[in-house]
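Hi V.,

Quick status before I head out on leave. The structure for the redesign project is tokenized and pasted below; the design run finished overnight.
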């Protein structure tokens, strides 16, 4: 049947609008492309977050981690091992290809590059596309969970070269610890003495590259609105003291340095710098303490690190609420320490006064200050019951299994079922560059 020309024109215009809407939106009505916030609570499995839940909000409460609607089971193997190292995990998250355990932005021997000889790191690809990028770490800035996105070296021990590549990368935001790795050996810094063997002063080099240097929480929060690039050096080494409880007690140290900004505070500052550039951005955030305290079997330190991770997820969720064209994705790369919490009864039962140092199978157990100390107290459940618990450890190394990927916002529907560690890169590329992936 013939249609009147005017009706055909109206139908055609409507189809164009429908097609444009489909091209610019995902299933939730948000644009397909936008910004990415990848949060890496290193070494934190579902069991880690379960322990945090009972301690921080109670067994019936919800963490920010719980409120991320998309969930998938993370597959964590490397090309030559069923369990990854942090540097191999960071490499696979950054490049999206299977890599060996020793890799640091490499295939084990050589940088991972495209046909034009350019880094295939999704962060370098974002920079080549004109997008602002940043990395945030509670550990030293050269930690692989973030540094692998910017640097490529034969060994993770090459801190001089890693930090140099980071400063020269052009990344807009670099926040973390490790001031000593940015100063020549013997040079006095704000937090300690330099350790670089090559004699280079990366603080001065960073200034030449346009970075504003900040050393304290106060300086970070007071950054001018026109800050274009920022390098944060908030500790001589890590912003935390990753030792067993007994060692910290003996030395009079707390798990975290009180003067350093938390990873959530660093993330909030990074988002301000990146978002005011008016372009889609990429931010990678790592709470390193979740891994390091777990590997030292320090239960209280691990719980504090997990709490800081969850606060960071809260910062990202708040940003997402105001900027819907953003993907927030959270994933560790391994299960550090094999942490479990063991219930010891409620406040009306005869819970032990102290936690036995060993389980019946010989596994170490922690109370609030290490072995043979009082048990942890959970926040009340919905019936008001207060329960006690201990933390038990399987290892002092990183293990496999129990890691989940959580996500919200843009393309969160892609996080489901089984999710390989290399899929982190693919999801980031999809969000930054769209279905056509990266072609720049």
């Amino acid at each position: 049947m013939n249609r009147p020309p005017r009706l055909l024109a109206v139908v055609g215009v409507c189809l164009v609008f429908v097609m444009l809407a489909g091209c610019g939106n995902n299933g939730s009505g948000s644009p397909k492309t936008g910004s990415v916030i990848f949060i890496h609570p290193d070494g934190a499995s579902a069991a880690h977050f379960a322990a945090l839940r009972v301690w921080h909000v109670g067994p019936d409460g919800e963490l920010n981690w719980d409120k991320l609607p998309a969930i998938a089971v993370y597959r964590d193997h490397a090309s030559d091992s069923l369990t990854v190292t942090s540097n191999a995990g960071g490499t696979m998250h950054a490049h999206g290809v299977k890599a060996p355990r020793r890799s640091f932005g490499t295939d084990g021997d050589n940088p991972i590059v495209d046909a034009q000889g350019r880094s295939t790191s999704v962060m370098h690809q974002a920079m080549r596309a004109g997008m602002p990028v940043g990395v945030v770490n509670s550990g030293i800035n050269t930690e692989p969970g973030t540094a692998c996105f910017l640097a490529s070296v034969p060994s993770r021990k090459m801190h001089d070269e890693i930090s140099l590549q980071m400063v020269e990368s052009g990344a807009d935001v670099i926040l973390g610890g490790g001031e000593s790795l940015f100063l020549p050996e013997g040079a006095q810094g704000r937090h300690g003495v330099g350790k670089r063997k090559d004699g280079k002063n990366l603080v001065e080099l960073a200034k030449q590259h346009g970075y504003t240097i900040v050393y304290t929480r106060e300086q970070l929060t007071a950054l001018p609105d026109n800050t274009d690039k920022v390098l944060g050096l908030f500790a001589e080494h890590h912003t935390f003291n990753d030792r067993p409880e007994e060692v910290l007690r003996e030395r009079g140290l707390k798990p975290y340095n009180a003067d350093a900004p938390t990873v959530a505070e660093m993330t909030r500052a990074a988002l301000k710098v990146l978002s005011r550039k008016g372009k889609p951005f990429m931010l990678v955030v790592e709470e390193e303490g979740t891994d390091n305290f777990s590997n030292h079997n320090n239960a209280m330190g691990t719980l504090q690190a997990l709490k800081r991770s969850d606060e960071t997820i809260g910062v990202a969720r708040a940003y997402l609420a105001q900027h819907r064209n953003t993907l927030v994705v959270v994933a560790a790369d391994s299960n550090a320490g094999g942490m479990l919490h063991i219930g010891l009864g409620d406040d009306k039962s005869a819970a032990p006064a102290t936690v036995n140092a060993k389980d019946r199978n010989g596994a170490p157990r922690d109370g609030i200050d290490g072995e043979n100390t009082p048990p942890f107290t959970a926040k009340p459940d919905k019936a008001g019951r207060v329960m006690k618990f201990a933390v038990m450890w399987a290892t002092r190394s990183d293990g496999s299994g129990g890691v989940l990927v959580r996500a919200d916002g843009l393309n969160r529907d892609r996080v489901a079922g089984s999710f390989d560690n290399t899929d982190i890169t693919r999801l980031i590329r999809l969000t930054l560059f769209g279905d056509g992936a990266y072609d720049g």
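Above is the designed sequence. Residues 34-341+400-433 form a domain with the Alkaline Phosphatase, subunit A fold (CATH 3.40.720.10).

G. will cover questions while I'm gone.

Best,
W.
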